[in-house]
Amino acid sequence: MTSFSLLSQHQDITVALGINLGRYLPSGSIVSLEGELGCGKTTLVKGIYQGLGGVTPDQVRSPTFTLINEYQTRLPIYHFDFYRLASEAELEELGASEYLYSDGISLIEWGNRFPDILGSDYLKIELTWIDENTRQLFLSAASSRYANVFANLLTIEAQAGSR
To answer: What is the structure's pLDDT at 67?
Structure first.
């Protein structure tokens, strides 16, 4: 398992992390975003959207009530919210598998609610509240598919630390 952890002391840092993630996520990526309500999952998605070439991050909104939002960037983004779903059967009614196993980028808020549909090859990002402005982000992946993502994040982190 590969993992990476960092502290975000402002939402702009969370967006910047998302931008860097978006630049390096491979086609067909599945990203499970986990953490309490209001911890920054949608803020991170705004950054990923920008990193994939999206130019209007204000259009990125939590799909809490729509369940899925689609955004056009250099790769299509499928932004899910599993919070209000009661069963995997509801996911199948949405056609979730068709999105998840496509060439697009699937970003899933509350992905931990239905881990079986994610398979074994996904990037997990846990966001934890530290205080009003600070979040701990822990990224982990069970396969080497995201090794390039981690390598680039480590390089960026090392460069930022040397300033």
So the answer is: 86
